[in-house]
Structures are given as C-alpha cells and as structure tokens.
Specification:
By secondary structure, the protein is an alpha/beta fold. 57% of the residues lie in helices and 13% in strands. The two termini are 13 Å apart.
Length: 217
C-alpha cells in the first residue's frame, strides 16, 4: 500500500521547496517516490478559464453601444455562482482522482498541497459551505501524514512567489486555513506542524522523514 504524505500551508511557507527536497531525500534512501502538485490538473484549468471568460464578457458589454445587447445589471454575481458551483464539482472530482492514487506502484506519494488547500482557496473566493469540509473528509482517504507548514505571517507573505492578494486578503486566507487545520486535527488526522521560518529546509525535511519512518514501520 502506498504511503501518502500531504504538505499543506499558507502561501510562502515553503510547500514546494520542502516537497521537492523531501522527494530527493527519500529517493536517496532507496524509496520509490512520486511528487504531485495538487493544483496542476485539467479541473484547475477549467476553473481558471472561467475568469478569462468573465473578463471578456464584461469587456464586450462595456464597449457595446447597442442597448439591446447590454449586460445584466449583476453579471459578476452570475459568474460567481457558476464558479462556486464549479468549485464544488472540482473538489468532488479531485476527491475521486486522489483516491485512485492509493493503488500507485510507488512506495510514497508526496502531495505539494492537498484537497484542503483547494478547499481553503475556494472558501475564501466563493464562500463555500464550511460543512463541505466534512464531505471531503468522508470521500477522500486520509493521508498517512499531514504536514502543516507555517511561519510568521509577515515573512511568509513576503516570501510568496506570486503575490496575488493584499496583506489583508492574505491574513483572511490564513485565518480560514487555520480553522480548517484545527478541524482536521479534531477529526484525528496524523499531523506534524513545522515553522519553516524558524527551521531551515534541511531541518524541515528531516522532521518529515522521521515522521514518515514511523508510518513505514
């Protein structure tokens, strides 16, 4: 049976750096390891394409001089509802896809982000129901280890590769993420919390390897 190590955390906490370094460390020990980035999928592409469609739709409406072709008074609201619905569908489809990974020929699969990072992202953007987290929990086989990366919020905000929100928006997302992680701990997930600002990458990887070895035994 494959072992799933899921690495989660707010933007800038070093998920990708830690995940890729962990893969190398485990492979050096002789393990067959697969690396998966949760947001790289056809479902994510579909969700993101809605944004471009909405922008083109709004642009066309603003430049039109024909009253009969005028846009509805609240096109943003209409598209938000569509995107919210697609977000729910995305999470359900990803749950099914993730479960199939448990029959992998690899010994270990490292997830750079997991279903819960998707949930946090969509809950902030589209106000998904908090109760839907319970649906995900029932649908997806739990990772053997859930690594929760964190750090000083100001420093992790500055460390983001792609800063796409204000600091206030970042803090809002952090609060949602913390609530979700607290909920998962309460549900009995096998979690390991690491401050990546205080710990260098090598120490982060070593901590995860030690936790993983306990599962292997």
């Amino acid at each position: 049976m494959v072992t799933i190590i899921a690495i989660t955390g707010i933007d800038g906490t070093g998920k990708t750096t830690s995940s890729k370094s962990l893969k190398i460390a485990l492979e050096d020990q002789g393990y067959k390891v697969d690396y998966k980035h949760q947001f790289h999928s056809v479902f994510a592409t579909i969700i993101n394409s809605i944004k471009g469609l909405r922008l083109r739709f709004l642009s066309a409406g603003s430049s039109s001089t024909n009253a009969s072709l005028a846009l509805p008074s609240n096109p943003r609201s209409r598209f938000m509802k569509i995107k919210k619905y697609l977000a729910y569908c995305y999470l359900l489809l990803k749950a099914v896809q993730t479960n199939f990974h448990y029959i992998s020929s690899k010994k270990i699969i490292i997830y750079d982000r997991f279903m819960f990072d998707d949930f946090v992202r969509f809950q902030q953007r589209y106000q998904l129901s908090a109760n839907f987290l319970g649906v995900i929990d029932r649908l997806v086989l739990r990772p053997d280890i859930l690594i929760m990366l964190s750090g000083d919020a100001k420093k992790t905000y500055e460390r983001q590769v792609d800063v796409d929100s204000s600091y206030e928006g970042y803090m809002e997302k952090l609060q949602i993420h913390n609530r979700v992680m607290s909920g998962l701990k309460a549900r009995g997930y096998n979690t390991v919390s690491i401050d990546t600002i205080k710990s260098p990458t090598a120490d982060v990887v070593s901590t995860i390897v030690v936790a993983a070895e306990k599962v292997f035994r």
